[in-house]
Specification:
Blueprint lengths: L1 H8 L2 H35 L10 E4 L10 H6 L3 E3 L1 H36 L4 E3 L6 E3 L14
Length: 149
C-alpha cells in the first residue's frame, strides 16, 4: 500500500499540481500585500485620506461604548462590526489575481495554437477553382460549389 501511494505521489501531474498550489499561495500573498500596502493607500489618499482597511460599520456595541477610532479598537472592545473596507481590499486582490491568471491562460492558449498549427498534419486540400481550404474527403467545395477530385 505504501508503495502504491509513493508511485501516486511521485507522478509528474501530482508534483506539478503541488508546485502550482505553493506558487499560487505565494502569489496570492504577494498580491494581497500589493493591494493593502501599495495600491490602496494612494487611492485612499486621493479619496480624502481614507484607509480602506479601517472602513467598518458597528452592528452591535462592545463592552466599552463607542465611537471607535479604528477597527482594531472596535474588535478589542468586543463590538460586532461589518468590515466592508477589508472586503474591498479582498475584491481588488481577487480581480488582480483573476487578471493575472487570464493573461497566463491567454499566453498558454496562444502557444498551444502556434504549436498546433505547425505540428498538425495536412487534413485539408486546396480547391483548384477558388483556392480555399477544403477537407480531404470533400467531393464538392463548400465555397464555390465546384466538383473536386
Amino acid at each position: 500500500m505504501f508503495k502504491e501511494f509513493k508511485e501516486f505521489a511521485m507522478k509528474g501531474s501530482v508534483l506539478d499540481m503541488a508546485v502550482g498550489i505553493i506558487i499560487g499561495a505565494a502569489f496570492g500573498s504577494v498580491v494581497q500585500s500589493f493591494v493593502a500596502d501599495i495600491l490602496m493607500p494612494p487611492i485612499g489618499l486621493l479619496l480624502g485620506r481614507v484607509d480602506f482597511a479601517n472602513l467598518f460599520l458597528i452592528l452591535g456595541g462592545g463592552a466599552t461604548p463607542g465611537p471607535y477610532a479604528s477597527l482594531a479598537q472596535a474588535q478589542a472592545a468586543g463590538a460586532v462590526t461589518f468590515n466592508y473596507g477589508a472586503f474591498i481590499n479582498k475584491v481588488v486582490s481577487l480581480l488582480i489575481v483573476a487578471f493575472a491568471l487570464f493573461l497566463v491562460i491567454k499566453s498558454m492558449n496562444r502557444l498551444r495554437k502556434k504549436q498546433g498549427q505547425v505540428a498538425a498534419p495536412a487534413e485539408t486540400k486546396e480547391c483548384p477553382f477558388c483556392l480555399s481550404a477544403i477537407p480531404l474527403k470533400a467531393t464538392r467545395c463548400p465555397h464555390c460549389t465546384s466538383q473536386v477530385q
